[in-house]
């Protein structure tokens, strides 16, 4: 994700207490009510030939924010061809068809996803006893993309009463025996999320694990019915 979104109104202070509740609601929204680690298989060791690829923590020499306080990384092995996994992940306009937490995606420029391409996407955070239901809007810019290898995007996420100044999200894809190993890591920065690092990290981790679960489910189903 990348770029600068709207800032709070003059004189308005961030509300870290509200953030803590909002972050939990994002966890619920992005995790799709509890699929998380109980359904995501543990990461498997990379094969020896993976050393021929670039560092799995980089794409085109770039990675997540090394100074960020909030960070999470994970891996999954998907039993499907690399082309299938790559198409699902990079055809961003079709994300809502296989990721229930993504309610809409809009490309902000034409053509295939590439370095410099931008897209805006939304995900709901449901109401809680102390916060109203909000829609989190994320504007992402692709910073690096190498076909069938890796993609890195960054940008802000903004909702009513909640702001992540910048999230940086890296994905790498490696062929392994029987499928594709997908590695992902993401960092968040911003005063609101940094006011409660453990809760924000838990929310980030839940979202990533849900995404990997959905990607694995969609790719393996597509391969099975191909």
Task: Please tell me about this protein's structure.
By secondary structure, this protein is α+β, with helices and mostly antiparallel strands. The chain has helices at 16-31, 36-39, 82-90, 191-194, 197-224; strands at residues 70-78, 104-107, 118-125, 134-146, 150-159, 162-176, 179-189. The model is unreliable at 1-53 (pLDDT under 50). Strands 1-7-6-5-4-3-2 form a 7-stranded antiparallel β-sheet. 27% of the residues lie in helices and 31% in strands.
Helices and strands in order:
Elements: H1 16-31, H2 36-39, E1 70-78, H3 82-90, E2 104-107, E3 118-125, E4 134-146, E5 150-159, E6 162-176, E7 179-189, H4 191-194, H5 197-224
Helix pairs in contact: 1-5, 3-5
Output the keywords.
single chain, 7-stranded antiparallel beta sheet, alpha+beta, 5 helices
Cα-to-Cα separation, first versus last residue: 32 Å
How many strands appear in the DSSP assignment? 7
Oligomer: single chain
Rg over C-alpha atoms, rounded to the nearest angstrom: 17 Å
Biggest β-sheet: count, sense, barrel? 7 strands, antiparallel
**3D shape:** globular
The number of helical runs is 5
Query: Going across the major beta sheet, what is the strand order?
Result: 1-7-6-5-4-3-2
Low-pLDDT segments: 1-53
Helix content: 25-40%
Q: What is the overall pLDDT average?
A: 79
